[in-house]
Amino acid sequence: MKKLLQNILLGAIFLVGVLSITATSHFPCMKPDITDVYDVNGECPPEPPPPCAYSDCFFNADPIYLSYEELRATSTIKVILPDPTPEPLKKAGKIVVLDPYLFINDLNRGVHVYDNTDPTKPKLLGFISIPGNVDIAVKDAVLFADSYIDLVAIDLTHFPQIVVSKRIEKTFPYNPYQAIDDPSVHLRSLDEKKGVVIGYKKDDPLKLN
Fold first, then answer.
1. 59 neighbors 186 (Cβ within 8 angstroms)
2. 150 has which bridge partners?
3. Which of 52, 75, 114, 147 is the most exposed place for a label (fewest CB within 10 A)?
4. Where are the beta strands (DSSP E) in 20-140?
């Protein structure tokens, strides 16, 4: 009886080995824990495409421009009061404190101005819309801010009334991707003469690598 059990066990081990060899020879794409990765002809199906790596897959896009005339128009830099609806802070950048004010840069949009008399409860006074603003400095009631490629000086003496006292054009390098957060965007037909890039229209996928 003992010998019979031994023979059955050896036979089972042999059978498993034969099945494994047969499956491997006829269905070479079989995985140990997957039984249905082959087709009816016993051939391996095509491998699925690998996911796009960070720098491998991009999308063509046409740039959306803000002309230099619009960028530098007197009405472009303006104050938006918090009443009736406060301008939302979308992407906070640099923060500057200069008693009694608190200034928070909203990347590429402008600057939120607060009354900071009580630091535990800053009171929103208004939002200064400055297209392409990513950095700020304040001195003697003058706000210095970049506006894409330009540097502007804004007199805050009579805030919320403001005056753009100085604009120095082409102070900073032209960066067409400054206002674009999506790293998969590839701008085409770029024309710096048309103005600064403020967005894009996504088109067809493009494989660069």
1. yes
2. 147
3. 75
4. 57-66, 78-80, 92-98, 101-106, 110-115, 123-129, 136-139
